[in-house]
Each structure stands twice: as structure tokens, then as C-alpha cells.
Design brief:
By secondary structure, the protein is mostly helical. It has seven helices and four strands, in the order H-H-H-E-H-E-E-E-H-H-H. The N and C termini lie far apart (about 110 Å).
């Protein structure tokens, strides 16, 4: 916040009435400092505030766009339904009450902004004119000797406390909701874990023994398999040698010398005898 904005904001009555079209006194002061707002929009400040703003900014004085006469909010307690809409609307917490209970305005703290009137669903809030130079009438939160600035400083302090309370309550609510959400997630997780535990079968010693035996069998198979593979390979080599010798003997019987033919004949007789013996053994 610049020094100019601070000085302009100090000139405003701090009622936060929004009659200027801005969302409070500080936004109007910022617009004035930027040169985007005319000097005559503060309705409760009237000509005095307009003249001070014009003097600070070095601009010409012009007639106030609107003048808001001093008035205090009053609640018709016979019609109040305790909806708390006015409590939420008041920028300085000048209304007391609770849900479904009667509300009442703290007259000394009321700035006369009128923001509580429109939200009331039963039209039980009325603005009553008051003979006071400046509102609010309470000044104990300011040590300024000038009545106008004492009232503004008091209202500003009340507004800042109101804003701080709203932020604190919002943070507390968010923390509460986050706690509820975390508790709900933890409860759901616990329920899922309990259901998963219940679905698991009870411990069975027979299953453990079966697993151990299967593991041992697998290990034994891993040890035996290489040996079987080597034996199979050796048999294949031996059978290949036998087939080669048989073909060589047949060739020698046709084309070999007398000695080769005699040796081949002996091999073929022996081979035939071995084959007949294997077939006889297989038949048994």
C-alpha cells in the first residue's frame, strides 16, 4: 500500500458501505490513487470528505454524487426469525444474536452502512435517522482527538478485526473438514484391510508341507535334468555311429575286397542278432 493510498484511506469514514461502487473504503482509495475514480463518490463523507480528497489529489471540488444521511440500523425483534443473514453482512460485527434467536444492533458500533437491510428475508431491519456528526458513536478504539477521524479509526479497527475473524474461522473450518476427510479415508482403509484379512484362509500345516515338497522336487529335477540330457546326447551319438557302420558294411558287401566283404558279413550277422534280441526283450 502506497503512502498516497494510506492518506486517502484515512480521509474516508471507513463505513465500508460500498455506495461508491467499490468493495469498501480501501478499494476506493486505491482507485483514487490510480486516477480511475472521481473524488465525489463517498456518500457518507459528503462534501467534507470530497473536499479533502480533491485537495490531496490537486483536483477541483465537485458536488457529491450522493449524500448518505446518518442513520442506525434497527431490528424489529417481533419479526426477526434469527436467520443470521444480517450478522454475516455487517462489516464491523455490530449485530448480536444466534441462529433461530432474536438479533439486536449494538447502536454505538453501527456505522450506518445499511448492508444488513437487503439480506434480511423478512424485512425486519430499518434504518432510523440519528442526530450524530459522525458514525460510529463509539470511539474507544482510537486516540485521535478529532471526532471525524476518531470515528473512522474506530470503525476501521472493527472492520479489520471482523476480517481477521472471518479468515480465522475459514481456516478452522478448512482444518476441520480436512480432519474429517482424513478420518474418513483412514476408516475406509481400515475396513478394507479388515475385509482383506478376513478373506485370507487360516494357516494349514498341510499346505506348508506340500509347498516344501514341491520346492524339493523342483530342486531335484534341476539336478537330474542335466544328467539325463547328457545321457540322451550320448545315446544319439552311439545310434549315429551304428547307422554309419551299418551303411559302411552294406557298401563293403557290394564293392569291397574279399577281406572287407568277410568283415562286413560278420558285422551284419552280429547287428541282426542284436536287433532280434532287442525286439524279443521289448516283446516281454
Amino acid at each position: 500500500m502506497t503512502a498516497t493510498v494510506q492518506r486517502l484511506n484515512r480521509l474516508l469514514p471507513q463505513t465500508q458501505c460500498r455506495e461508491c461502487g467499490y468493495d469498501g473504503c480501501l478499494p476506493y482509495a486505491q482507485a483514487l490513487a490510480e486516477g480511475s475514480a472521481p473524488v465525489n463518490l463517498c456518500a457518507p463523507g459528503g462534501e467534507a470528505v470530497m473536499a479533502d480528497i480533491a485537495g490531496l489529489l490537486g483536483k477541483a471540488c465537485i458536488a457529491p454524487a450522493k449524500i448518505q444521511h446518518h442513520a442506525l440500523a434497527w431490528i424489529d425483534e417481533t419479526a426477526c426469525i434469527g436467520c443470521t443473514a444480517c450478522i454475516r453482512a455487517c462489516p464491523v460485527d455490530a449485530i448480536m444474536g444466534a441462529r433461530k434467536l432474536m438479533h439486536t444492533v449494538i447502536a454505538d458500533e453501527c456505522t450506518g452502512c445499511g448492508l444488513c437491510v437487503a439480506p434480511c428475508p423478512v424485512d425486519c431491519i430499518h434504518m432510523q435517522p440519528v442526530k450524530a456528526d459522525y458514525l460510529p458513536q463509539a470511539r474507544h478504539l482510537s486516540d485521535n482527538g478529532a471526532a471525524r477521524f476518531a470515528a473512522a479509526e474506530h470503525a476501521k479497527t472493527r472492520y479489520e478485526r471482523h476480517q481477521a475473524r472471518k479468515q480465522r474461522e475459514a481456516a478452522e473450518r478448512n482444518a476441520m473438514l480436512a480432519g474429517r476427510e482424513a478420518a474418513a479415508k483412514a476408516r475406509i482403509q481400515a475396513q478394507a484391510q479388515a475385509a482383506s484379512t478376513a478373506a485370507k484362509p487360516a494357516f494349514n500345516p498341510a499346505d506348508l508341507i506340500a509347498k516344501a515338497m514341491a520346492k524339493a522336487q523342483a530342486q531335484q529335477t534341476q539336478l537330474i535334468t542335466p544328467q539325463n540330457r547328457d545321457d540322451f546326447k550320448a545315446r544319439q551319438i552311439e545310434e549315429a555311429k551304428q547307422r554309419a557302420a551299418y551303411r559302411r558294411a552294406q557298401r563293403d558287401m557290394k564293392y569291397g575286397s574279399a577281406a572287407e566283404k568277410a568283415e562286413a558279413l560278420e558285422f551284419l550277422r552280429r547287428h541282426k542278432a542284436e536287433q532280434e534280441a532287442k525286439e524279443a526283450a521289448a516283446a516281454k
